Every structure is written in C-alpha cells, then in structure tokens.
C-alpha cells in the first residue's frame, strides 16, 4: 500500500523551474550562433585568409547548436522526473548540476563554450585567440555580452539547484515512508486435519424413541392369568 503524495515543497518546485531555465538558456545560446551564421563564416574567412574556411564557421555553429540541444535534453529530463519523490532522481540531478559547472563556467571567462566551439587549423594557422578576435570583429557587440550573461545566470541556476535539493524540506519529501501491505496468506497445510482430545463429561443422550414399548414374554415363574370376565 502506498501513501498519498505529500504536497511538493517550494524548494523542489523552484529547483524544477531553474532546470527548465537552464535548458532554455542553452538552447537560446545555440540558436543565436545559427542566426548569426553569416557573421561567423566571415570571421573564419578573415582569420584563416581562405574563402574555403567559411565551412569551418558552419561546422562551428551547427556543432554548438547540437551540443546545446543535447545538454538541454539531459537537463530537462530530471526536471520532469522531479515531479514525484524519487530519491535516485534527486541524487542524479545534483550530480548533473555539479557537472554543469564545466559546461557554463568557461563561457563566463570568454573561453570556449558549447554554443561557440572554435575550430583552428593547428600549426601554421591562426590561434584560437586570433579566431576569437576575428569573430568579435564581425559579430554584434552585444553577442559576447549575451553569452557571458547566459553563463553567469547558468552558474547561479546550477548553484541554486544543488542548494535547493539539499535543503531539509526537499530531503524529507524525497524520503517519504513506505507503508507495508497486508500479510500474505500461504496455501493450507497438507495432510489430514489434527483432531483434539475427546470432550470431558458423560455422553449426551438423545430423546427416547417414539411409539408404544415392545412387550416381550413374561418372566420365568409367573403364570399367565386371563383377565376376569
């Protein structure tokens, strides 16, 4: 038998909202790279000095969108599963939130992020710093600031998710008690039934038989006499 679900605490509801916000921001960050695909391609052409390098910009933008979509999917699944008190979902969400620091923190410091991976040619070609500078020259000025803002909000959201799921109201809701069901009855025992001792006291006699009594022959030594007329 299962207990009715207790009301979801505000800490769990807020953690689910932060997970959804984190997934939405990553998708938006990836979509921005696709919207400014022409500017990214021009930045790669200027950085490499080769018109054929425009394909590197396309690969960079599409790869960033795919990575952001995969990350958003990984984040949104725990947000849906947190609707019911499953302890393993809570632990998994905390672990994923901790790993998210590696995904969003480099972007805050201007490094490589999922939404804007960099492709370089290795030795003899432009460095990653030169590619970043060329992209910054072709992209709008607010583009880099938006990515940094996404990263800062993402770090705050990840920290909030971990803290909210570790608070006592959340921990108590996920550790709800389980009530045992009714006892299970097994099959009847094999063999003849066991008889107890006989009842104590005299046996019970039934009622006398109905009808006239049966007369037998007269006793010995007694002569039969006809009745007086």
TrEMBL record:
Residues 187-220 have a biased composition (Pro residues). The keyword Transmembrane helix applies. Keywords: Membrane, Transmembrane, Transmembrane helix. This is Uncharacterized protein. Residues 187-229 are annotated as: Disordered. The chain crosses the membrane at residues 57-81, 88-109, 142-167.
